[in-house]
Amino acid sequence: MDVIKVMDVNLSNKIAAGEVVEKLMNVVKELVENSIDANSSTIKIELIDSGIKMIKVIDDGCGMNKNDAKLCLERHATSKIYTDEDLFNINTLGFRGEAIPSIASVSNFLLKTSDGVTGTEIFVSGGVIKEIKNSDLRKGTEITVSDIFFNTPARYKYLKSLYTELANIVDYVNKMALSFPNISFTLINNDKTLLNTDGSGNLLKVISNIYGISVAKKMVGIKNSDDDYEISGYISYPENARSSKNNITILVNGRCIRNTLINRCIVEAYHTYIPKDKYPIVVIKIDCDTSLVDVNVHPTKMDVKISKIDNLLNLITDCISNTLEKLTLIPEVKYEDRPISNLNEVTTINNEIDFKEDEKKEYIEPKFEDLTFDFTYEVKENEVSYEKSEDEKFKMINPVALIHGTYIIGENEDGMYIMDQHAVNERINYEYYLKEMGKETIEATDLLVPIKLEFSNKEYLILKQNFNILRNINIGFEEFGNNTIIIRSHPNWIKKDYVEESLRKIIEVIIEEESFSKEKFNEKIATTLACKMSIKANEYVSLEELKALIERLRQTNNPFTCPHGRPTIISYSIYELEKLFKRVMQ
């Protein structure tokens, strides 16, 4: 008796749905991508109960004739690729031909479409075509997916809460709106509009729709290119950093992707500008030849393989780093008459999803046109290093007081400033140590009394394996008995009164590092020593010393944050001070 049989088409579609439709967002994603590929200029997504009861996607694209409408329900039926060569030059978002039949196999699926000549309506339930009839001639396609997973209850059971499913959909549609600012996107859940873009092609305006005007005002344009890649987009000022890396949007040839290497590259470009557990808001568009990107990795098409990835990472790092270096990054404290709700904040009330409406404001809301000034900085090939004078980062601030032995109060003609003396000194020391450790020749000082350091068996084995690191930074030492070394000289950049403490910190870093990189080692040593050797909180110093400290801060490469990404300075403009004290009323 034969055991192996060809699987029923409907059964295979249900199995494929397990890969294509993992959550409700995947349904929206597949339908929206088809609408984009159909050259739509307007896409409307309507949801009922976060899509669990209904997902409807309406577009004004090219539509389909009757034959194509029926054929699109067949597995692997597609208009996107036809040959092997096409598979390696994909310039559309969809191409597999799996999504529509997979979704239709686990839902009640209604397709209405017209190419402007004929109109067709097809109703499918659980993968079985129930009805085909003529429809109206409105050009475009309307797909309604209802009762998702009604015939696969095990999968329905593993759907997340209404809040989670809706949050995933909102996040995806936001990213599509950022990817295609020339398309008008509308997202509605239970008759509440969550996103509405105008399709004007202005990316900064879409950022404003999603994140709000205050964030859009603190975004700066980037642009860079080489022989293979062209990058553009917007990055946020460090003060807009968020707790989730989900606000980093990476778009490759219009496709929203996930890529750990690019994410890490972007975050590292913000190193010392933002705290370790914070992430910038970034929308970065990468355009390249389709042959450099393989999107045929996973059915969701979000994981891709990129050729010449090292070149791309260097391009991104240089562009972001050079842009941040040119900005004045002193956060300004803003006076608000009352709290303003977040337009995109999701709340749950009586188990229903609700989005907070923007409160009515008593002041005049700034118009979006105010945001359209040009922030763009382009890195040019063989560009000469940009030298900064002392005054370019910020004007001199005159210290007038020290509050709680921690916060410097200063002033100049632009307003009042508050500085964290520890963070200020930490930034100065950090750049000093980095500079000294980066020198080819490091001068050393002999110790009058050698320092003896003992270690555990494990620590000593690791240290012994890395003795060359100590020698490279000119620490003179010799082994002395079991698990012990004697240090006889140290680099000149180690402070006189903190020699033993500094040496112990350096050796701790060597022991803790799993793999050695000179840059990372220097960075970690500089950060560690800068923190330990800086003025502490509740440590009072004179105004003359504070003035000298501020002068030194102005000469650093990044005077606006400490090595950990915390701000060194915040400002109150004269206008904001006058608003606080009601000297001005608008």
Quaternary state reads single chain
Number of helices: 19
Largest sheet: 8 strands, mixed
Spatially, the strands of the biggest sheet line up as: 5-4-3-6-2-1-7-8
Radius of gyration: 30 Å
Helix content: 25-40%
Classify the beta-strand content into a percent band.
Answer: 15-25%
Rounded mean pLDDT score: 81
Which consecutive residue ranges, at least 5 long each, have pLDDT under 50? 14-18, 337-366, 369-388
Q: Any idea what the shape is? A: elongated
Q: What structural category arises from helix and sheet content?
A: alpha+beta
Give the tally of β-strands.
25
N/C terminus separation: 87 Å
Q: What does this protein structure show overall?
A:
This protein has 586 residues and is an alpha+beta fold. 32% of the residues lie in helices and 24% in strands. The chain contains 19 helices and 25 strands. An eight-stranded mixed β-sheet has the order 5-4-3-6-2-1-7-8. A six-stranded mixed β-sheet has the order 12-11-13-10-9-18. Strands 19-20-21-25 form a four-stranded antiparallel β-sheet. Helix 1 crosses helix 5. The model is unreliable at 14-18, 337-366 and 369-388 (pLDDT under 50).
